[in-house]
Design a protein that fits this description.
5 helices; single chain; alpha+beta
Length: 119
């Protein structure tokens, strides 16, 4: 029996972003805090690369065994993946001895909507 799940493709127009588009109105202190945490997590080159590896991996998820070759030790990879999970950018699922990571489905759409220029 397969544990593979098909992730839905979300329409950015239907996703509730973390914040309004930056050009719409100033962020509240709470919105800025939450959003800064996501961007801070992506501000590290290794984390950004890991996030990109997961996001672009076939099927939208990647086993840690497939993405750990980023030029740092395995414990450091685990640390960076933990930071991405804590920021709400990735979800994970243990299957046997391996952990599989997925980009949180609404994250990219919500971040993209926040960064888009208000029409």
């Amino acid at each position: 029996m397969s544990n593979t799940k098909v992730l839905p493709v979300l329409d950015p127009a239907t996703v509730a972003p973390c914040c309004p588009p930056l050009t719409e109105r100033p962020l509240s202190a709470e919105e800025a805090e939450r959003t800064a945490g996501m961007f801070k997590a992506l501000g590290d080159p290794v984390r950004l690369r890991l996030f990109s590896l997961v996001a672009s991996h076939e099927g939208g998820e990647a086993c840690v065994c497939d993405i750990s070759d980023v030029g740092v030790s395995q414990p450091t990879v685990s640390h960076h993946l933990k930071k991405l999970r804590e920021a709400g950018l990735l979800t994970s699922e243990r299957r046997g001895t391996w952990v599989y990571y997925r980009v949180e489905p609404s994250v990219l759409a919500a971040m993209g909507q926040m960064l888009r220029q208000h029409a």
